[in-house]
Amino acid sequence: MASWRETYLWRETLAVPESLARTASDTEGIDAVARLLGDPGVRRIVATGNGAAYYAAVALWLASLDGRSGPDVLALPAGLVAKGAFRWREGDALLAFSSSGEMRDVIEALDAGAPTPFAAVTASPGSTIGSRADAVGLVTIESQDAVTHTQGFCGNVLVALAVWATITGDAGLRAAVLDAPDAVEGSCEAAEEWALALPCLAPSAGVVFGSGPAWAGALEGALLLKEVACLPAEGVETREGATSAMYPLGPGHVVVSLPTGPDAVIDEAEAICAARGATVLRAPGGARGDRRLAALTTFPALIALSARLGTERKLDVDQPSWTDAYYAVARGSA
User: Fold this and answer.
1) Which SUPFAM superfamilies match (predicted)?
2) Which tens digit of pLDDT belongs to each residue from 94-153?
């Protein structure tokens, strides 16, 4: 059985810092999206996507709560805006996240009269969504041989934060975005060391939690446990981890916390989950730099853990068994 470090999934994660550096260098696209969304007539940014792309929208929303004020941000899974089901308001501006640019629900929203002009964050500017967008934040993907979006997810988050920094004139967040490639590179090194040192694990389910902006990382972490290791998992805000998410916990379950610094709420949640009999792991990375980068800096550890668990379960973590079923729904290819 190949080591998780030999998978395309991990190799592509190691290339995330270079991907982020190239993505951040496309200031023309970032500025165009910021101009559209920061227009005085925009009262609310409706940010949407599916799965990891939706979690990038959540990262934007959480960042908007944690720094300088700007337009209201509403993060929604794309299914809520599909087929004209969403009630748009005057002053709404759509921000669509889709690496492929072919997300079925977003295309249906556009066809049903979603407000224009709209902006997209995508790795595929010539796609259906990219070609219809009035402003495009371009994500650079160095390679993708694994199904799981590593560079795509991280690029989506980076562009979202860069756009928000530009809209709000937040110099601190702008500096954090520029530092992100180095921060993630350090997180990759720490993640590999951490995952190799973990004890033998064979969990049947998992919970991931984080505070503030790390909640977006927790959502992505739970998705990775499901997507890569095929483990039922839930991603929650830290206090929810100490309450509703801990109810069914016991031996054979794994809990992953994503601290971004000293956090008494995280400490309490870890202790409560451990007392239930779960194995509690504290992932590295979240304390590297501005905490609004947490979805990026915790990502390598969550990939490493999921890849290790998946390979130990003899799964193909690069080409999971669910791939065709997913595309049949997400892109309407059935």
Assistant:
1) SIS domain
2) 999 999 999 999 999 999 999 999 999 999 999 999 999 999 999 999 999 999 999 999
CA angle 260, 261, 262 (to 5 degrees): 140
| CATH superfamily for domain 4-181 | Glucose-6-phosphate isomerase like protein; domain 1 (3.40.50.10490)
pLDDT at 2: 65
CA 221, chain centre distance (Å) = 8
Residue with structure tokens 């993907």? 141
Read off the tokens for 235: 């991603």
Q: Per-residue DSSP letters for 269-309?
A: HHHHHHHTT-EEEE-S-TTSS-GGGHHHHSHHHHHHHHHHH
Q: Which CATH class is domain 183-312?
A: alpha beta
The reported pTM is 0.96
Tokens coding 161: 């934060």
User: Whose structure tokens read 């990262």?
Assistant: 59
